[in-house]
């Protein structure tokens, strides 16, 4: 991965200049992985651990990656002038079509955490043809409630902004017991981030609107994600309830919920997320020969059962209506989200007529 071509671009938009880092060369027959970070982080502190992991190198051979930094959050960013109106979450999502246009991209697989996950979800809702899939870590689809608002206002009187961000990124258990990790991120927030710009980004996220998504039922025409989605959360994360709630609002035939035993602000342990990401990509028809290790999957239909994925690993997908999606990737293969297994054999134990949600534990 050290040999990947890396280019940094500043993309001009009506809502400000967006700093982007492109790693690798986009391939015309497949999407680019587009990332968006959380508050208190930038693309390096949020994603370097994951994308530098040895297991990620196989994915990076197949996909270019575009890291997007929110305005004023990248390293060395200039301080915004007093009175500058920072973009709202909705406006930040509106900058992404211009990012794709700047790089000549047709579609992306989005990967976001926290505020970045919210922005990418809004983008996918408004521009479904541009998003082939989403990996959403610690997603909160709801507007900040008045009780949360009041709590943040009160805590703001007694705690510095870094403490508020730490409580957003980490669960109480890690805050109380993993002092070295907390100290590292507190130091980053205080010394590496532009404090004025960071305050504006935090305020924008706290002012977010409800995404107003609903789980579709037959015959309905509700607002929800149309692409496959992998929701990720750690069992001690402060976002657990929000992520579970978001999962209940998505099409169960296209959403997978991944719970891990621990989480850090950037993501779960890189090896586990990389494994899940490979499954996710394979379900979209890419990287059919990717190497795998092991995940434990719990299926939920009328009931639930745990399945260990070793050797012949089964997985389920269903069609989006009668729509199939074709790409000009290897062998000009046609692709559709249908019930099947990862090695191409059918899964006779799964009734394709029954909506399924999938939960992965690792």
Automatic annotation (TrEMBL):
A single GO cellular-component term on record: cytoplasm
Annotated spans, Disordered: 297-362
Skewed-composition ranges (Basic and acidic residues): 317-340
Alphabetical list of Gene3D superfamilies matching this protein: alpha/beta hydrolase
Pfam family, one: Ndr
Keywords attached to this entry: Cytoplasm, Developmental protein, Differentiation, Neurogenesis, Wnt signaling pathway
Family the entry assigns: Belongs to the NDRG family.
Domain of life: Eukaryota
Keyword Cytoplasm listed: yes
One GO BP: cell differentiation
Protein's name in the database: Protein NDRG2
Main location: cytoplasm
SUPFAM superfamilies membership: alpha/beta-Hydrolases (SSF53474)
Localization terms from the record: Cytoplasm
Species assigned in the record: Mastacembelus armatus (zig-zag eel)
Its biological purpose: Contributes to the regulation of the Wnt signaling pathway. Down-regulates CTNNB1-mediated transcriptional activation of target genes. May be involved in neuron differentiation.
